[in-house]
Amino acid sequence: MFKGRLMRLGTKFFDAEGVERSASTATSYCWIVWMPDHHDTRLRWIAPCRARLEREGDYPEYDMAIAAAPAPLFDA
Fold it and tell me: The whole model's pTM is what?
């Protein structure tokens, strides 16, 4: 994931400096749920399942010239 855009793992693109880059998964995520009157605090790991859960159409198509442009959505 890159600032202001979502790309499929391995997508090649050129950054603002013209350097070729590749989308990677260098980010970890955690989902925490609090439920009233439940006191079970065990951790439950979710096994790697990205490829199994992805579907066609999950990621937008980018013109690579546009992908290298600033992402104003997150600049404010």
Answer: 0.45
